[in-house]
Design brief:
heterodimer, B: 271 residues, two-stranded antiparallel sheet
Chain lengths: 309, 271
Amino acid sequence: MEFSIVQILLLTAYSMYNIYDELQMNSSLSQPVWAGMISGLIMGDMKTGLVIGAALQLTVLGVGTFGGASKIDANSGTVLATAFSIGTGMKAATAIAAIGVPVAALLTSFDILARFANTYFQHKVDKDIENFNYKGIERHSIMGVLPWTLSRGIPVFLALALGQGVVKTMVTYLNGDLQWLNTGLQTAGATLPAVGFAILLHYLPVKKHIAYLILGFTITALLSTLFTSVQTLGTGLGAANKAFTTTFNSLPMLAIALIGGAFAILEYKRSMAKLNSAPAASSNNSSDDEDEEDEIEDANGEVSGDEEE
Amino acid sequence: MKKNNGYELTKADFKQINKRSLFGFQMGWNYERMQGSGYLYTILPQLRKIYGDGTPELKEAMKTHNQFFNTSNFFNTIITGIDLAVEGKEGVDSLDTVAGIKTGLMGPFAAIGDSLFAALVPTIMGAIAATMAAQGNPIGLFLWLAVNIAICVFRWKQLHFAYKTGTKLVSEMQGQLNALTDAATLLGVFIVGALIASMINIQVPLVAHLGKVSLSVQSNIDMILPRLVPAAVVGLVYWLLGKKGMTSTKVIFIVIIFAVALSAIGVLGKI
């Protein structure tokens, strides 16, 4: 299957929007899972997109943008991996490690380029201030949108327009003489989330909360083994006897998150009780304080908002 | 020259600042002054109202707000609100104070904002969305979108709140924010534990042959503890990341190389 012009343009436009959304609204449309689903839809195979997006999402879980450092660009990696996987018939599991990760790493340098290019506009703003050129200040401050979006748009466009032949050759070899590499890349794809989790653990206060790491791991390890076994059993029974039609679902992650949420609420209440027992807090209870309380509850609702849904 | 006798932000002002913050604040991000020009862009119309067009005071204010600035783009309008509360009351004399407030607050807010919104929300919502998506189910993605839209609403409201409360805000909120961050990181750690146990689908396909007895290595590992292999891999990567000069990108490639090599000799495989 060849990419159509429309597909190439849509994927390019989406990858340009990606970086804009990430910098501004942060609606989650600029996360790898969404990148997978949207490029999957553009290519006409949403499921492949979701699978690739999910794997890359987990790989970069801990890689936030701390202090304006460039991070591995898993979004563009997902867009290209999805497009090429569907377009050339490369297995989704292979595309994650063979295309997604290298592209994501490569595009880090384009991110750096954009951040450099914007220095030019910063100096334009300096001049505009001297001249009281208000429109100029505004224009030159948002013109940075060009380096930002082009830093994703150009490489994605070029890769899609020129890369098909290369990727097709790759697929032929991977399905032929290099089968061992194909299997290896799939194993690598399955292992990669470990990196995302380890980075997160470095960032989170893991020593302080080590008990909860163990709880989360053990509860899930036991339950997921149980759920998987029951599923296998159900499938086996269904195959053996047509009258057995019950299907068993896999372990819902939301339920596990709820258990964690309960622990978090307990911890929050404990800290707040400690805070309120301190003498300073009890003195003035003006209306300002009430407002504050609301805001905090808001924030709390969002961080652990997944529990209520 | 216009003498400043106080300017109160109106509803329209709040709306304008919020719009600029949500849709344009980080477009000018650059290595030299990071969010410098973005900060100025966000509050330029209000500065013009406070100081009057063409005045030397305005020029000084614009220069002050075009300096180095970098904080969480989830909390930047809290600093803006406090800034404008002070500046609107005291005018050009407050510029030194305001510059101090900005520099003093951008660090702490960057830290809290990053741990809450750049690490924790993507971890929890990303985990839920990705586990569902791995099975081809997009519902988790929409859940995430809903949560992030709620966060945008919160970002929109905080400006007015910060403007009203002014400088008192930070010291009063400190304790609650700490408690919140603490609870949120606990949830984060718990979720990572759950993810390790559910989302790294690898096993040891090796079967040892001892005479007539063949011994599956994986089923022996499962008897000790299910999901021990993923836990061990995460432990190794964690250790690797702590090494000097190691970056996440390097580690990702090391993992790919080792996984391919171990798979080729039959020690590691996908489930």
